[in-house]
């Protein structure tokens, strides 16, 4: 049973550049959430995608955008990168519907460094 | 005030000791509570999941939820060096169109052999 996968593992970008991170959810899951985790902090919610639409958004600027594809995989895009965007970006998958329980399963993360 | 507060640690205990981890929260709508374990530079791994108040046991791990006090705990019995990690509490409400997980900042635990 494949878990949540993310790519790439590490990424180094320069201020002002744009980045795209990718996520494939756990088999059988249809919902993808993205979180940003700064060093020494808990993950902060960016947004959640369900049925190819953004269902909920956290307190992040419009520079952060996303997409969900028909196969439930998802992308996170960040434009005009700032030094403060350096963090571990986590993708989490879950199941929406009658069996929704709030459980989310995380991938290994993409470590983004902005220089 | 943060929505979820977690005892900051760090904690250092000898092998075999009981580890006690705690979080408090302010949002009374939370009804699903989780504990995640995160090894250095890895993604969080779901350890325990509890709905509403009560206790749940899974092997050496026990999760407790007291909604009246807005307080949750995780106990690790017979701790092992492999339990050394950062533990994150997380919670969500789901029913009120709020699907996100709200996390504590994490407690780093070191179990000394």
In words, what does this structure look like?
The complex is a heterodimer of chains A (115) and B (113). With 115 residues, chain A is an all-beta fold. Chain A is 0% helix and 50% strand. Chain A has strands at residues 5-7, 10-13, 19-24, 31-37, 44-50, 53-57, 64-68, 74-78, 87-94, 105-106, 110-114. In chain A, the strands form two sheets. In chain A, strands 2, 4, 5, 6, 9, 10 and 11 form a seven-stranded mixed sheet that branches. In chain A, strands 1-3-8-7 form a four-stranded antiparallel sheet, with no helix packed on it. Chain A is globular. Chain A starts with a strand and ends with a strand. Chain B is an all-beta fold. Chain B is built from no helices and eleven strands. Chain B has strands at 4-6, 11-14, 19-25, 32-38, 45-51, 54-58, 61-66, 71-76, 85-92, 102-103, 107-112. In chain B, strands 2, 4, 5, 9, 10 and 11 form a six-stranded mixed sheet that branches. The A-B interface holds A 4, 6, 31, 33, 35, 40-45, 48, 55-56, 58, 88, 90, 92, 100-109, 111 and B 4, 6, 32, 34, 36, 41-46, 49, 51, 88, 90, 92, 94, 97-106.
List descriptors:
heterodimer; A: 115 residues; mainly beta; seven-stranded mixed β-sheet; four-stranded antiparallel β-sheet; 50% strand; B: 113 residues; six-stranded mixed β-sheet; five-stranded antiparallel β-sheet
């Amino acid at each position: 049973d494949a878990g949540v996968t993310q790519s790439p593992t590490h990424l180094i970008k320069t201020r002002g550049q744009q980045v795209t991170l990718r996520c494939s959810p756990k088999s059988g899951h249809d919902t993808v959430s993205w979180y940003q985790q700064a060093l020494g902090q808990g993950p902060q919610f960016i947004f959640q995608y369900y049925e190819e639409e953004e269902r909920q958004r956290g307190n992040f600027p419009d520079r952060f955008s996303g997409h969900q594809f028909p196969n439930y995989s998802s992308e996170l895009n960040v434009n005009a990168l700032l030094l403060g965007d350096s963090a571990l970006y986590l993708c989490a998958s879950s199941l929406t519907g009658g069996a929704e329980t709030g459980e989310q399963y995380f991938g290994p993360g993409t470590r983004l460094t902005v220089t | 005030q943060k929505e979820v507060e977690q005892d900051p640690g760090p904690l250092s205990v000898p092998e075999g000791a009981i580890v006690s981890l705690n979080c408090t929260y302010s949002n009374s709508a939370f009804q699903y509570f989780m504990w995640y374990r995160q090894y250095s530079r890895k993604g969080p791994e779901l350890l325990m999941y509890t709905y509403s108040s009560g206790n749940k046991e899974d092997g050496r791990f026990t999760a407790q939820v007291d909604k009246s006090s807005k307080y949750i705990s995780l106990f690790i019995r017979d701790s092992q060096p492999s339990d050394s990690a950062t533990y994150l509490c997380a919670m969500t409400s789901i029913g009120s169109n709020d699907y996100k997980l709200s996390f504590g900042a994490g407690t780093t635990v070191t179990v000394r052999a």
